[in-house]
Amino acid sequence: MKKNLYWIIVGIIIIAFSGIYAVVNKNISIYDKKIDTTNYVSYPISAENEISQTFISPEDKINGINVKMGVVGNQNNKKIAYKLNDENGKTVASGEATLEKLKSGKFFYMRFDPVENCKGKEYTFVISVEECEPTEQIVIYATPEVDNDKTLKVNENKVDSTMVLRVVNHRFDFETFFVTAIFLIYVVGFISWLSKVFK
Fold this sequence. Notes:
Jelly Rolls; 7-stranded antiparallel β-sheet; single chain; alpha+beta; 6-stranded antiparallel β-sheet
């Protein structure tokens, strides 16, 4: 009876811990991940310029956007503004960020208040440069692909590329839950086996 109770408690702890751990920032790419990074193209934008990407939301909720970015020059004293517009051009989320923590060539997370009921709807994510030295630029990376559902514009000029952009949804992820639970079951089973061996 005590042994059964022990395993029930262990099972509850595993499920609870896995459930908590599985609530993550889920990143869903809108670009073709099969394209090699060596084929990426870069679009430099300077002060008072902007770049925008239209896409169909793959998620029901959007908590933020991850974009692969870099800088030409010093990343300090640089500031961007960003916004998410719906299909009618209405701004549904916005924010500002400085780039001190940007690791050039890596993804930069731009958070905002959650936007609900997004799946299957068209949105446009706009990045504009607020502060940047005249001789320096902010670089946005893109893949050389053409998709009718996605439109990339640099200063309102359409280009045949797709921004290296990920939609971020802070939610429960079953895959993370499953992997974590299996790992914990393995650890508990291994410790139980060791205790029997050295008993």
